[in-house]
Amino acid sequence: MSFLAFLRENARWLAGGFLLTLFSSFGQTFFISLSAGNIREEYGLSHGGFGTLYMVATLGSALTLPHLGQIVDRYSVKHVALFIIPMLALAAVSMAFSTNVLLLAFTIYLLRLFGQGMLTHTSFTAMGRWFSAQRGRAVSVVTLGHNTGEAIFPLIFVAVAVAVGWRNTWLMAAAALVFVALPVIVSLIAVERAPRASDPVARVSDARDWTRAEALRDPVFYLLFLGVMAPSFIGTVIFFHQVYLVELRGWSLELFAGTFTLMAVMTATFALISGQLIDRFSAVALLPSFLIPLGLACLILGLFEGQWSAFAFMALLGVSWGFSSTLFGALWPEIYGTRHLGSIRALAVAIMVFASAMGPGLTGLLIDLGVSYPGQIIAMGVYCFAISLVMLQVSRRVRARATQPLAA
To answer: Which of 279, 355, 374, 381 has the lowest CB atom count within 10 Å?
Structure first.
């Protein structure tokens, strides 16, 4: 089946997943951090202080997600959406009216839980369950929602905030969720996708259906997170401290905001490419390579001060994120099956959220202690190259055991 035919036959489900990931942007770090300067000023917070608050709030969402994420296994995607989208809108309203640090922390907790966490988790879990042979394609398409959000929302936010203020911009985000996202998404996913006779046979079979308890006893599960955490950790750090970075380099915030479009284009391009590769070779086979562009991106950003380094970093970040976003959507059903996919993937997403929580707080504290921020970025690049070697061994181990009966 051609890619265009695939899009035509599955338009409503792919569009629903795409919009879920698109509107998850309101709970993503790149969007929240656009208000970081205003928040630090109005609440009297330092880089480390706001980073720590952000870390604590995000850690709270990471601890909640493994429990809340299981609802995707128990209820239809439609009913889950009817709950999580209004909750994200409520969080956006809270951001607009927050007046103290405690309410700010709770607001960020809700934004991270229902935006970065549940909207993304619901979309990818649905694609993993609804598609098999074409899972890579499906995940790559809905991943474009993230890329589209990264391309358009920073520029929109900056422009609107100049006109009406940053708090009113958050109110407008809440209105978009309630009056646009909710009715459109619910109408698209009202009917769950069922397997069709026209679906091709999968080249790579899913594993048997592991329970979450069995997955937690699997050493591979923990080794995977050494790689899975890296894109979330690094991306969150760079986006969260983007204002500080441009101050260090002498760039304008408008210039750096403009690089998001380049990153989004590269991410979208390589998400689609990786989707085709996953359907052909498997997600497990691509594990050793997805961190290499990210490692190179960090070395460039850490070592060079010219404006070109911002564009080079974002381009390479887009390559790595394109591969990783599609990879993570297809990886878990390949290794652990689909029956308990919601609960297993919720735990995986929680780990990624945990990584994104640790990044701003840890690096913010190091900045406050006088540790070079460019030096920290270089260290992240070295980590990526080292973990790529670990992922090579993990890939070999998973493929080797796939030829044998899995032990419980």
So the answer is: 374
d(CA 90, CA 151): 24
| Token reading at 112 | 């991270």
Confidence check: pLDDT of 408 > 50: no
Contacts of 217 (CB under 8 A, 6+ apart): none
Closest CA to 119 of 18, 192, 187: 18
Of residues 158, 146, 133, 104, the one with CA closest to residue 17: 146
Judge whether 220 and 398 are in contact, CB under 8 Å: yes
**Which residues make Cβ contacts (< 8 Å) with residue 149, sequence separation at least 6?**
21, 22, 23, 24, 25, 28, 31
Specify the 3-state DSSP secondary structure of 404: coil
**What are 139-153's pLDDT values in tens digits?**
889 988 987 888 789
Which pLDDT belongs to residue 199? Answer: 57
| Residues 286 and 165 sit within 8 Å (Cβ to Cβ) | no
DSSP alpha helices (H): ranges in 69-134?
71-74, 77-97, 101-111, 120-130
Domains and CATH numbers, the chain: 10-192+210-401 (1.20.1250.20)
Distance (Å, whole) CA 408 – CA 400? 16
Sign, CA torsion 203/209/212/215 = negative
Q: How far apart are CA 293 and CA 323, in angstroms?
A: 10
Please give the backbone phi and psi of residue 290, each rounded to the nearest 5 degrees, phi first: -75, -20
In this prediction, residue 106 has a pLDDT band, given cuts at 50, 70 and 90, of very high
Mean pLDDT of 342-367: 80
C-beta neighbour count of 382 within 10 angstroms: 13
Give the CA diameter of the chain. Answer: 62
Residues 6+ apart with CB under 8 A from 295: 381, 382, 383, 384, 385, 388
Distance (Å, whole) CA 90 – CA 264:
27
Q: What is the mean pLDDT of residues 45-69?
A: 87
**Where would I find the beta strands (DSSP E) of 244-372?**
none
pLDDT at residue 38 is higher than 50: yes
Q: 361 near 55, Cβ under 8 Å? A: yes
Question: Contact 271/325 with Cβ under 8 angstroms?
Answer: yes
Q: How far apart are the first and last CA of the chain?
A: 36
Give the percent of the chain with pLDDT over 90: 40
